[in-house]
Amino acid sequence: MMSAAGGVEIEEGVQIAPRVNLITVNHDLKDKMIVICKPVYIKKNAWIGAAVTILPGVTIGENAVVGAASVVTKDVPDNAVVVGNPAKVIRTIEM
Prior knowledge:
Blueprint: E1 2-3, E2 8-10, E3 15-16, E4 21-23, E5 25-27, E6 35-37, E7 40-42, E8 47-48, E9 53-54, E10 59-60, E11 65-66, E12 71-72, E13 80-84, E14 87-92
Parallel strand pairs: 1-4, 2-7, 3-8, 4-9, 7-10, 8-11, 9-12, 11-13
Antiparallel strand pairs: 5-6, 13-14
């Protein structure tokens, strides 16, 4: 599922499992009628597990792995494995 008003860029070799949410819009906390758009970027060869949610403005790094059911609130570095809610780096992949 994509809410793509802010833009979504998916580079080559990316794998995306079922039930992933790519969210690029949010509402202003003071005036909920104001919509704020920020793009989501998924870099080359990243792997996004099932039921992951990626929030507005987040970049998933090259070769990164996002574990199933994670909620990604911040950028993920290249070659990192992240899991959880909010997603946190648990290891680095040696390339």
